[in-house]
Structure formats: structure tokens, C-alpha cells
Design goal:
The protein is of the alpha+beta class. Helix content is 19%, strand content 45%. It contains two helices and twelve strands; from the N terminus they run E-E-E-E-E-H-E-E-E-E-E-H-E-E. The chain is elongated, with a radius of gyration of 18 Å. The mean pLDDT is 94.
Length: 165
């Protein structure tokens, strides 16, 4: 079987966001941010139009996904080391002696254990896999998502979208 790939890595797939990573044992990064950039590769068979997937649609869908993260504080919902409380339009986050308070409209809660580049790539991959299933893109067998947090420093998620042969 012949497979083909397309890749999109454009300026429009960038987002600026704040985060911190917990390491356990009382260790936690200081609050900081990145100008992230995302890239995506889809691998599969050609469809009836001789495309793996339409570039315009893929750019639009990925721009929408990354846009939801832009200018937000990224908070992991699945981190057992964090205590997160929402009240009166604010989000309070505690980790050990550290306490942060953010306006709720500036926060996006992600279903991840930590806001590492790898897990951000996985989050984007999950959303894209769900979208591809919704639109019936059954010819795509693998997606690769890169999240670059600074030049030359990226996390990747590579996910099969079908059972491996």
C-alpha cells in the first residue's frame, strides 16, 4: 500500500500562552509563557480527488484549534498535584506554597496531566483525530503534531488513527 503525507506549519498556527510545569516533590517551574508554533502532518492514502486532505481545510481547522489557546493561561485538569478552585469569575490554583489567581476568561482548562509541549501536541492531536472522524476522513492513518515552544525545542505526538497492520 502506498501512503502519502501532507504537512502544514504556518505562521497562523502560532499561539502565545502562559503555563508552568509541576515536577512533584515540591518542584514547580515559575510561571512563564511561550510563543508556541504548531505543525501537523497527515499520512494516509489519496482520496477520490488525489488528496490526503485539503490544505485549506487543514489550515483552517488547525488555526481554529490553536486560536483557542492563544493569549490564555494553560491549566492542566488532570494534574493531581494542583488544587484548582473557580469562584466569582476567578480561578485559584495552588501547588504547595505557590498560589496563583487568574481571571477565569483568561484560562483554558486542558484534559492533560501537565502543560508540556508533548502533551499540548497530544491535546491538539486528540482534537484533530475527533474532527477527522466527524468529517469521515477514513483515508488518514497517522497524524503527527509538533508544538514548538521556542526555536529548536519541540514536543511531538504521533498517533495512528487506525489499527496497526
Amino acid at each position: 500500500m502506498t501512503q502519502y503525507s501532507i504537512t502544514v506549519s504556518k505562521e497562523s498556527l502560532s499561539f502565545a500562552a502562559g503555563h508552568f510545569i509541576t515536577y512533584g516533590g515540591g518542584l514547580c517551574e515559575t510561571l512563564h509563557g511561550h510563543n508556541y508554533r504548531a505543525g501537523i502532518t497527515l499520512t494516509g492514502e489519496l482520496d477520490e480527488h488525489a488528496l490526503v486532505y485539503d490544505f485549506v481545510r487543514l489550515k483552517s481547522e488547525m488555526t481554529e484549534l490553536t486560536g483557542k489557546l492563544d493569549h490564555k493561561m494553560l491549566l492542566p485538569l488532570d494534574n493531581p498535584l494542583l488544587q484548582i478552585h473557580r469562584d466569582s469569575g476567578e480561578v485559584e490554583v495552588k501547588y504547595g506554597a505557590n498560589r496563583y489567581v487568574f481571571p477565569e476568561q483568561d484560562v483554558i482548562f486542558l484534559p492533560v496531566a501537565n502543560t508540556t509541549a508533548e502533551l499540548l501536541a497530544g491535546h491538539l492531536a486528540d482534537r484533530l483525530v475527533a474532527h477527522l472522524a466527524e468529517v469521515g476522513a477514513t483515508n488518514i492513518h497517522q497524524i503527527e503534531v509538533e508544538v514548538e515552544e521556542s526555536f529548536g525545542q519541540s514536543g511531538w505526538c504521533i498517533r495512528r488513527t487506525d489499527p496497526e497492520p
